Amino acid sequence: MAVxxxxxxxxxxxxxxxxxxxxKRIDDSIHTLVEDMIDSMRAANGVGLAAPQIGxxxxxxxxxxxxxxxxVMINPEIVKRSGARxxxxxxxxxxGYLGEVIRSIRVxxxxxxxxxxxxxxxxxxxxxxxxxxxxxxxxxxxxYIDQVVSPDRLWSREELEARRAAAEAEANxxxxxxxxxxx
Length: 183
Fold this sequence. Notes:
By secondary structure, the protein is of the alpha+beta class. The protein has helices at residues 13-17, 28-43, 127-139, 157-182, and strands at 48-50, 60-63, 71-82, 85-89, 97-103, 106-112, 118-124, 154-156. The protein has a single domain (13-149), classed as Peptide Deformylase (Alpha-Beta Complex). The protein has a 5-stranded antiparallel β-sheet, sandwiched between helices.
C-alpha cells in the first residue's frame, strides 16, 4: 500500500513514549494500517514494527521472520516470559545505534489476528522472542535504549564498524606474523 516515514527519537518522543490505545474494532482502516506497516518495515529492512513507529498510537504489531509470511498481532501482550540473555539490538526508531539489552529466553504473547481471532505465539531463544518483547514494548511506550544494560553498552554503528575493522586488522596481522615464523 504505502511506505510511511519512521518516527524517531528525539524528534517523535511524544508518540514513541506514549502507551498506545487498544484497537476496539478491526475495520478497513486497521487493514490498511497493517499493510502500510508491513511495507514500511520491509522498506527499512526491519524484522518487526509497532504502529507508534509510523506515528499511529494503536496497539498493532507486525513481525516477519526470514522465509516466513509476516504475522500481525492486535492488542498484543506478553503473558509469560522466563530466562534471561544478553543480546545486541537496534531499532528503526533509533537509527544508527545498537545497544546491549537483557531479553527473555522464552516468551509467550497473546493478541488477536487480523481476522479477530485470539492467537498465542511462543518463541524460545531466537529472534522471534526478541522481536515480540521489543515490539510489544513499543506499544507500551518503552524504547530499547531505556533497557540498555549500561550507558557504555550503547554504540553508534560507525563505532562498532571501526572496532570490527580494527579487530580484523589485528587478527590478519597476527596471521601474517605466524606465517612469517613458519618460514
